[in-house]
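We examine the record.

___
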Amino acid sequence: MPTYVLEGTGRAVFPRKPVVVSLTVSGSASGADMHALVDGVADSRAVRPTPGLMVLPRIDALTILRITPAGVGGEFAPGTSLHLSLTVEDRSDPDPDRAVIGPIDVSGESHVDVASLDSALDGIAVSALRSEPDLDLGPVGNIARSVTRLELGVDQLPESVQVDLDVAVDCSASMLAALADGSIEEVCNMVAGIATVAAPQRIPRICMVGDSPRWIEVDSLSNLGPTVVRELSQALLVSGFRSSSIPRGDQRGTTTTFVITDGVPADATRDLTDQHFVAIMSDSDNVDSDWADAVTVVHPPPGGTSAVVHLTASRDALAATVRSLVSKAVPNGVGGTRAVAR
């Protein structure tokens, strides 16, 4: 019987019989747990005779195979990869149908959805869900992606609830310090990490807000931060910043624009619920309490330290910042809830 190697858009069809899933973890991880989820809830019919082995007696609805680090919470250690094998349970067949997936690099992930199984006309359809390695977004962007996945409980939002994210950048002279220490680029990398989950096929646009605000298209999420740095370095800086001058552009659906600045603009209005200010500033107490839910404060690094070193030095603080941004980008989570099935 055939062995299917599932990668890219690969798909296998099994006969309608129980499926045995085996998991092998390579690298420095201490182990991993497998979960079979139907509508985000653990399938109570799944049987786990030994660690690393799970039997699915019946597939009659879309079932997602999710892998998490062993135990409760935590993340996979650097250098951890997963290998998955799915085999039809048929004792009358010495060589039953089999599908293999992996290796999948899961370094730094809190969970990963690796495969789906669903009832089909001709049997059970098995598909890989991690068809490509994650795009490298740098240390801050990669952490932001992991935190967003944990917060929303999915690798990617379903198409029906995906959102568009845009970035508007204050081009006033007061932003030079945040440009020099890397804070602006790292905020963009946070947005890129969130976008890989919230809108994976829709790359955020950039609006450079100076005397003549203009939108810029970006070709890759990994280029979001570098593009902003290049454009701001070459921009004719202005003496003030007005958030009301951000052009609306072509709204592509449900869009949130993250406005990167160094404080709440004087002309800011609460009427624009599709804008959220990301203020790079030392003292969050300078933000009026009435604006607390409309502003996420990112503290700049101390002198002589880069933003990437500063932000990654405290994973908890960085995660809190990302969660604040996610709550504005996807206010109702997935299907109206932020509960994460583990």
